Amino acid sequence: MSAEPGHGRVGELRRGAGVVADLLAIEGETDDLPAFASWELEPATVTALDRLSVGDPVLRWSVLAAAAAVVLRRLGATVAVPVLTGEPLEARASVLLTPPPGAGFGAWVDEVRVAAAAACSPGGTEFPEGRAPLAVGRTAAASVVLDLDDTWLCAESAEAPAYQLEYFVDGVAAVLRDGLADSGVPLAFLGVLDERMRRPALTEFTRPCPGAA
Q1: Out of 49, 59, 127, 147, which could bridge 133 as a Cys pair, Cβ 3.0 to 4.6 Å?
Q2: 122-162, pLDDT tens digit by residue?
Q3: What is the rounded CA–CA span in Å between residue 106 and residue 21?
């Protein structure tokens, strides 16, 4: 599977966390105020998200996690990236995500949902019944936290610069817009970057991993 529970996979978790921290410029403790970025989703995206998630918080979280993983892959994550979920923050479960470029967005969301449920169950982590933020980074504290309410997508971090948060949020919003508009669209064709950068990004995104058959 391309999305797998993170339990017992310490090496992969560490590699993925390090890659994400580098991509999002998470540098370490800082005395500055947390950086914050937000994006208001288009009405059509909100409607499609509500229709797909059907009031299920795990499925809604999975849509957000699926989009975030695609953006991180586009930014250069060549290993599985860990996404944290559950409450409390100190006991979050980690899900390792590696988006398959040829898969449709809807199928990828289903894969993430199954992996999230599996990651929460063995450790006794309960998935929140309401809104469920997710975190990417080294730890729950040293991370970027994404939250999705009825219409706004928000990102916050005490250790990542504002420009990186804005870039990340813009990309996630674009994936949500295009992926929810057409759940069958291959992940490699979701609009994350502008047209000038699209061709080089697609070339890198679809390149086989070393050692792949």
Answers
A1: 147
A2: 555 566 565 667 888 766 667 888 888 889 999 988 888 88
A3: 27
Q: Which residues contact 166 (CB under 8 A, 6 or more apart)?
A: 37
How far is 29 from 124, CA to CA, in rounded Å?
A: 30
The three-state secondary structure class of 37 is strand
C-alpha neighbours within 13 Å on the C-beta side of residue 1: 18
Q: How many residues does this entry show for the chain? A: 213
Each residue's pLDDT tens digit, 91-120: 566 788 899 989 999 999 999 988 887 777
* Span 153-187, pLDDT tens digits: 999 888 888 888 888 999 999 999 999 999 999 99
SS3 11: helix
**Per-state percent for the chain, helix, strand, coil, to nearest 5:** 45, 20, 35
Say if residues 115 and 4 touch (Cβ distance below 8 Å): yes
- Whether residue 11 contacts residue 68, with contact meaning beta carbons closer than 8 Å, is answered with no
